[in-house]
Amino acid sequence: MKKFALIIIVIFTASSAALNAQYVQDVVTGERLTIKRYAGIHGTPYFDEDFTTGDVHLISGEVFRDALIRYNAYENEIEYSHEGRVYSLKNHLIKEFQMRYRRGDIRDTVTFRKGFQGEGLDSETFYIVHYEGGITFIERFRQRFQEELVPGYGQPSPEKRFTPTSRYYLIREDGSVDEFRKRQSSVLNTLAETSFFGRFTDEKRRGLVQLIRQEDLDMGEARDIARLIEHYDKNY
Fold first, then answer.
1. Less packed terminus of the chain by CB within 10 Å, N or C?
2. Is 129 contained in some domain?
3. What is the pLDDT of residues 50-104, one digit of tens each?
4. 52 is in which domain, residue-wise?
5. pTM for the complete prediction?
């Protein structure tokens, strides 16, 4: 009886895998991709060059779970790996996706979402969501393509490379958007502009500065900025 039950479980697992493989075919472009298109370019066009497991949320509400995906931050597209082949997913069908990854001893999940609107934002671009509450903190991460002449013997030679860049935004409760830099003064000034009805007083600013010192928060790190914004959002 136990052997029979095991056979059922194995068959069910295999069937589920087949269904997932078939299901994802509905959201791929049908075009097989190759990394050779970036040959001869220094750096990487990806948020993380390695494929990692993640969940893809469709606009329809369906979720494709535990897919092997990576985000091409130059093309603004999700790539899917299946049986040694790489495909691009149809962006217009996707609302958001999460990628689970490990860097050193740190395990983390990063959420990318599109549909944000406001000054300086593009509703078709995927943004990293660092915090959501009364205020939303997002990051526009991209790999910028650059071509420059490098001095050498004789004539300068052209060098092509991808360079990572980020821009940071706070979205207010009324939908307006403020861009800021990863510096303490910029973060605090933007929070002051984001506040309503005198929420952000000098006393509260001093309280946030004290929290930064006590918690040893680095305003050059998005994770620590998110912790500060969460404290502000929940306590002020």
1. N
2. yes
3. 999 999 999 999 999 999 999 999 999 999 998 888 998 989 999 999 999 876 6
4. 2-180
5. 0.83
